[in-house]
Amino acid sequence: MLNPIRSFKSFGNIFIISAPSGAGKSTLVNELLKKDHKIKLSISTTTRPMRPGEKNGREYYFTNIDNFKKLQKSGKFLEWAEVHGNFYGTSFFPIVREIKSNVDILLEIDFQGAKQIKKKFPNAIGIFILPPSLDSLKERLYKRGQDKYDVISRRILSANKEISYANKFDYIIINNKFSKALLQLKAIINANRCKFSYQAKNNISLFKKFNIL
Fold it and tell me: Which purpose does this protein serve, as stated in its record (predicted)?
């Protein structure tokens, strides 16, 4: 049977952004999306409870464990993982549809999901967000006040393990100063859009005229 992942030429880039909780990943991603309308955020499905201010279908598709497992067993997820006691998954076909339509996709997922995506899409670009220190990470988690104490404690304990996988990513951004980190994130996105392979796929007729394909 033909592998649906390898049966088409992908025109859009896939960017993977990972970080330990509290590193500022979501804030960076949200600001990037405001400024760059050529990139689209993949919305994951999760079993974690909805936080105040969140909306189903905007931050996540919220579901229960039984339904999540049904989706996972039926092959609906491109990647999935259990993180801090909750399940997260990326739907398969929306990603395929978007990159075939020349849309850059951004996946905001953990290192387990990133590893699965890289196996299926070796050219996906991995970006890891590091906090300036573990102390600053703890401070951010407590200050944002979104989780209970035991949840925060689990996130802090997991941070070292998550950070140990940073060397598997293509780029590292140290989120010490937000404006600088955002500038670096935008630079990575734009630089990959200028790679020969990306430009060639999206400018075939021009490259043929110049005889550089």
Answer: Essential for recycling GMP and indirectly, cGMP.
